[in-house]
Structure formats: structure tokens, C-alpha cells
Amino acid sequence: MTNYLDFEKPLAEIEGKAEELRAMARAGEGVDVEEEAGALDKKAAAMLRDLYKDLTPWRKCQVARHPERPHCKDYIKGLFTEYTPLAGDRNFADDHAVMGGLARLNDTPVMVIGHEKGNDTKSRIERNFGMARPEGYRKAIRLMEMADKFGLPVITLVDTPGAYPGKGAEERGQSEAIARSTEMCLQIGVPLVSVIIGEGGSGGAVAFATANRVAMLEHSVYSVISPEGCASILWKDPEKMREAAEALRLTAKDLMRLGVADRIIEEPMGGAHRDPKTAIDAVGKSILSMLDDLSDQTPEKLIKDRRQKYLDMGAIGLSV
Predict the structure, then answer these.
(1) Alpha-carbon distance 314 to 244, whole Å?
(2) Which of 137, 157, 229, 293 could form a disulfide with 114, with the two C-beta atoms 3.0–4.6 Å apart?
(3) From start to end of 254-315, where are the E strands?
(4) Which residues have C-beta within 8 Å of that of residue 312, sequence separation ≥ 6?
(5) Interatomic CA distance for residues 314 and 186, integer angstroms
(6) Which of 147, 132, 124 is nearest to 99 (CA)?
(7) Could you tell me whether strands 98-105 and 81-85 are parallel, antiparallel, or unpaired per DSSP bridges?
(8) Cβ–Cβ contacts within 10 Å for residue 22, how many?
């Protein structure tokens, strides 16, 4: 059953009525409901198009956080073969908010790394809601070093509200781990492509997404801080999150204009959660296209172009 967002409540009523009619027919009540249910389906489809035609930044945030949206684990299962997970940072622990390992994409060996939020209460707690601790970033560093050593392209899937801000994480060097992971992204001499599949929150996202090519799903968001956090700091009122979302320019279209994102991956009507397979396939095609663009570049050129991409962002930002 679809988990509806706040702004989708009128749609929920129409789709609910159509389902009630079909349930009556299945129960054998001897009524022909298909014509009426079909009319409701058409009305619901039209409403869905209207709702998603021009989403506000805040509504984009809501869609990006939808609990039924495909997560890193789903993309790995749907796109890669021979996935072999690699665990631990060889120093402290294995952070379950970050998953990664060796895999094949269309028979090409790659290293895939991503944030995993979990899909039910138990897994969300185990995965810490996708908020990585220092050992998660150190695991990513280890995997990127391995990929560089063996000449494997690196693919990162970003979906995190931000790095975990807990006391233990800070004591173990959270900011240093994020900085080192970002530095490693800039140092490796292999193609690095990143896809923002949900939320791209703060330095916790940048540590994975400092890539040669960055793609964003149509309804994903990427920002220095969450709208709620921004509103709490600027207005001392987290309820101002709608205004903050507007000001942060966190949508895929905004970030294309700013030169942060390189391409937008179209989502199924109503968001990736309504048709996960189509969304996953679209991401796979985009990853293959980005890797193909980089396939003939030398390690030196990959590193130089990646660094230049980020040096250029400030100039682009000032002109927009």
C-alpha cells in the first residue's frame, strides 16, 4: 500500500475509493465497478501529474525522504552482479550506515559505495538512518584506495541526511574522517561517478560525491544543511523549513544551474517510490553513460578535471 505524503492526501482519497470499489467486486457482491473505478483511476492520474508538475523545494525534500523510495541496497541488487561486500575500517568497527564492495556493472568490475538508510524500524536503527560515523567514512577511504590500486571505477550512491553528530562520533574524529574521505575522492586516478538517489546532506554527502560526474535523481535534494536545521539557525524556528528549502537552492534544477550536478535523471511520475524498477534502470543507464564519458581519460586527466570541477564552482555560483 502506498505511503502518501501530506500534499498527496487528495490523491489518497481518490485512489482509496477506486480500491474500495475493486475490493467490493473481489468480495463477490455482484456489482460491476470497473467503469467507475476506471474513471477514478483517470482522475487520480491527472491529479498525480498536476501535483508533480512543479513541486516546491520543500515538497521535493519530502519526496526525497519517502520511506518507500529505493535505497542503496535496492540499487546494488538491481544493477550489479557478483556483489561482494567489504566490511570495516581496519581500525575501529564496521559502520552499517555505509555499504560497499566489489561488483560488476554490465560485466565491468567496479567498486560501489553508498549510504544505506534501511527500510523498516529494525534496519533503520541498524543502519543509523543513513548517518555515517567516522568508521563509515574510513571504510569508504579504504575501498577507494583499493579501487585505485586495481584500476576499478568507483560508483557512489548518496542518500544521507548528514554525518552522525553524536558525541562518540565527534570523539573519534568525525570531521577529520569526512575531510579525508573528500580528499581521497580528489586523489584517486580512476573514474569516480556519484548519484544522489535521495538526500545529499552536508559534508556527509560531499565526502562521497566529490566526483568527476554527479547525477541527481529528479526529486533528490543536495544541500549544505537540512531545511529544518537551516530554519532553526537562521529563524530560530524549525517550522520555517519551507522558506529555508527555497533559500537553499537544493533541487536538481538549481544544482545544475550552479554547476554542482552534471545531469538530472528523470523519475517515474509520482516519484521513484511508485515505480522502483524504472527508477533503478534509469540510474543504471546514467551511470554507464557517465563511465563511458570518462573511459578514455588518463589517471592524471581524471584527477585534474575532478579538481578543476570543484575549483570552478565558486565562480559559477557568483555569476548565477
Answers:
(1) 21
(2) 157
(3) 263-265
(4) 259
(5) 17
(6) 132
(7) antiparallel
(8) 16
pLDDT in tens, the chain (320 residues): 468 888 988 888 888 888 887 777 676 655 667 778 778 888 888 989 999 998 999 999 999 999 999 999 999 999 999 999 999 989 899 999 999 999 999 999 999 999 999 989 999 999 999 999 999 999 999 999 999 999 999 999 999 999 999 999 999 999 999 999 999 999 999 999 999 999 998 889 999 999 999 999 999 999 999 899 899 999 998 889 999 999 999 999 999 998 899 999 999 999 999 999 999 999 999 999 999 999 999 999 999 999 999 888 866 545 55
Measured distance CA(105)–CA(93) in Å, rounded: 28
Nearest 5°: phi and psi at 59?
-65, -35
**CB-CB contact of 282 with 266 (8 Å):** yes
The helix/strand/coil state of 85 is: strand
Q: How many CB atoms lie within 10 A of CB 259?
A: 18
The whole-angstrom separation of Cα 94 and Cα 178 is 16
Identity of the residue numbered 143: L
Question: Which strand (E) or helix (H) includes residue 227?
Answer: helix 227-234
What is the pTM assigned to this prediction? Answer: 0.91
Q: What letter represents residue 102's amino acid?
A: L
**Cell numbers placing 207:** 565526502
Residue with cell 500500500: 1
No. of H helices and E strands in the chain?
14, 8
Tell me which residue of 55, 34, 43, 54 sits closest to 12, measured CA to CA: 43
Distance linking the first and last C-alpha atoms of the chain: 42
Task: Look up residue 125 and give its three cell numbers.
Answer: 536503527
Longest distance between any two alpha carbons in the chain, whole Å = 72
